[in-house]
Structures
1.
Amino acid sequence: MSSDDRARRGAPHLVVLTGAGISADSGVRTYRGAGGLWEGRRLEEVATPQAWAQDPRTVWRFYQERRRALASVRPNAAHLALASCERELLAAGGSLTLVSQNVDDLHQRAGSAVLAMHGQLCELRCEACAVVVVDRARFDADAFVPCANCGHPRLRPNVVWFGEVPHHLAQIESALVKCTDFAAIGTSGAVYPAAGLLAAARDLGARTWVQSLDAPENLDPRDRFLPGRAVDVVPALVADWCR
């Protein structure tokens, strides 16, 4: 963003939506798309309330493997660039609202404040008393974690399964209303309601940016499309925003 643009538009208020593409460069596996099976199962078979009710041990084993794997990955240059941009914009009187579809905690470890609309792998939630706990230590795939608050025998992963309502929708809507610029980074543009945020921001008058390896399903001619890997494209894009 040039100094002339900033002078005309005032302090920028960015909303950034990130998807699996930003964490792929850190080695995070998504289990979506071709070849994304786990023990012969599609993600949709182990990521639903129905699967948890019918076969909780299988669902628990799947998520315990994913939770354990978080310890072996680190934030990459794209995560770090967004965290730095958030600090710079805040210091200049602007803001960056980071919304993520990812359930890893790489944005948080990079230093960003995140609206994790699909939840977090590092959190467990009690279905009896609704308490949420951060747990980065108990990864036994054969042992459920009981609730220390109410005694319920098993906590569930605090992630949004297929058919459940995403988190933070009211906060995301409030951020969109005031945003001057919106960026979708590493998303397929196929998973709703997240995929609808790009069009909503565009309709509200925000400038829109899209970064992914290939053109996503919801790309519009009015969007500025930046193809490539997030780790290569995002740092330069962020530097332009923060000038």
Note: Confidence is low (pLDDT under 50) at residues 1-8.
2.
Amino acid sequence: MATAAPPLSFPRSRRRFVQAGLLSPLGLMLAGCDGFRPPRLAVNGVDITGAAYAQDFRLLDPDGKERTLADFRGQAVLMFFGFTQCPDVCPTALTRASRIRELLGPLGSQLQVIFVTLDPERDTPEVLRAYTAAFDPSFLGLYTDVEGTAQTAKAFRVYYRKVPTGASYTMDHSALSYLYDPQGRVRVVLRHELSAEQCAADVRQLLAKTA
């Protein structure tokens, strides 16, 4: 089992999580290689402004419509990868996301939360729709096929794998959230242990910086 990079600590849980080098020193050195250099952010998360990964996606929503980051231009986007049968980390992340929107007050409408499934074999469009709505009606679940899921995870440096559990399986996966500015640029990685208050402060700063 891979282990998390030294800069971060991850929550203990019934499942194991790795962050697969996303925030390793090498990963941070790669940030900025695309030439985008806006003012740096003093955030509670990790500023990855200019990172060459997590640039975009082509995924389907529960209605079968293809979605990309361009669809959410003008809003900040909070994106998390997981699966609906996750026993703890995914529900915690989405509950935190719901609280973040509450803490933002009127600015909450400027934050779109996206949940991308790593388990398309079980997370059907109907399952995704019901799952995200249970946390907030505005949350959007996205999916693709098994091959597309692997390609998307690689492009976002998201670790995941199936773990057999008797006649079924669970999923190991990284537990980070990506935060994009209203121009669709990845800016911040939010660690799982951050509070909703800390995350909301980062979103507010991002909206203010890009207003």
Note: The first helix runs from residue 25 to 30.
3.
Amino acid sequence: MSLTVVLAEDSPLMRDGLVGVLTRFGHRLVAEVGDAESLITAVRARRPDIVVTDIRMPPDHSDDGLRAAVALRREHPALPVLVLSQYVEQSYAARLLDLGSDGGVGYLLKDRVSAVTEFVDAVARVAAGETVVDPEVVRQLLHRQQDPLQRLTPREREVLSLMAEGRANAAIARQLYVTEAAVNKHVSAILQKLDLRVDGEGHRRVLAVLAYLRA
């Protein structure tokens, strides 16, 4: 499926490489920009199928690209956004997942772009509404937790084990013979203790289960 793409990347060499890959797989670049302000302007004018943006861009050369993505998602909640980063930053990953679940989101390391088929697959999946997180990002984030499951009570571990089986809160309540409100309280405590401070509970549940399976 051909997608219309707005690309934001301040490095001309990297931008040309991304353009080459995307066009080779049939996607159409409707705007190629090098700073956060131009990204916002281009998306408002072009209304693309997906935004692909670097995190660090002018004017501040900090997290301008991510802040622009957050602003655009507030305007257009269903806009798919794929963010590229030079290295893993936990706060960036949390803010990205915080964009919500109305539209697809992705967080890839720039090294992943060299694996062309993986990168293009990620673009298509995010455009289709999925959440795509670089495997190295997941690995490092979980490693930094330093066995977070030790913070959980036995009951919270029991709830998390049932979450790992894919059970919804109502089903967990029936299994444990408790109220659904009690399960909601346990789930909130689990997510808080695992330092998963984002609003999209579906994303947080996935990360919580990954932590459980790793342990």
Note: The radius of gyration is 19 Å.
